[in-house]
Amino acid sequence: PLTRLELIDRLKEALSQERFEHVCRVEKTAMELAQLNDVDVEQASIAGLCHDYAKQRSDKDFIQIIRDKKLNPQLLNYGNAIWHGIVGAEMVKDELGVHDEDILNAIRQHTTGNSYMTKLAQIIYMADYIEPGRDFPGVEEARQITKHDLGAGVAYQTKHTLEYLIQKGQPVYPQTLTTYNAWVPKYR
Ligand code: DGI
Ligand code: FE
Ligand code: FE
Ligand code: FE
């Protein structure tokens, strides 16, 4: 496996400066949440760094992997926003040599969430949403909630993201709805 510094070199090559700085902030936020929640800080670091590795890949690369690896063909109805996590995890595994399935699942779930999420997956989902570079109405509330209760943070983000998608008339990936049903009523 690559060392953290080798990983950082690969990420710098794969990402714009802005995106690279985002993943560094997600790494730091994820490590802080890991410490607060008794999760392996090293796993949080690698997952945070790699979560958006595939964000700037072409549609063609994603479509090829969806076909070659026989991933859910429904994926073809969506685009980069959904692909870069679910399909991107395959690129992280095959190109960066990250084989830890907990890390790969956290990357797979970082955009849509899922009904069952490990604490690591919850941390990456939340770190991406609340990293210090994020600025949207409610982000400070999301930071406070998440610091005190990781699961309540997951519910908060899921509800607000679904509201946003509906308000914009965007297609909702079924797993996003699954996440909503599993988390939002529970924390009401
Ligand atoms: O990659 P990032 O920008 O750091 O963040 P992300 O991976 O969490 O989210 C990327 C975008 O995906 C964000 O604008 C919200 C959007 N998204 C989340 N769930 C869905 C979705 N877009 C669609 N179309 N459908 C979804 O279910
Ligand atoms: Fe992302
Ligand atoms: Fe996110
Ligand atoms: Fe991100």
From TrEMBL:
Q: Which UniProt keywords apply?
A: Hydrolase, Iron, Metal-binding, Nucleotide-binding
CDD domains listed in its UniProt record: HDc
- Domain HD, by residue range, is 19-133
According to UniProt, the reaction catalysed is:
P(1),P(4)-bis(5'-adenosyl) tetraphosphate + H2O = 2 ADP + 2 H(+)
Q: Which domain of life is it from?
A: Bacteria
List the molecular function annotations (GO) for this entry. Answer: bis(5'-nucleosyl)-tetraphosphatase (symmetrical) activity
| SMART domains cross-referenced by the UniProt entry | HDc
Q: Does the keyword Nucleus apply?
A: no
Q: Which SUPFAM superfamilies match?
A: HD-domain/PDEase-like
Q: What is its EC number?
A: 3.6.1.41
* Protein name, as recorded: bis(5'-nucleosyl)-tetraphosphatase (symmetrical)
Annotated organism of origin: Limosilactobacillus coleohominis
> Gene encoding this chain?
yqeK
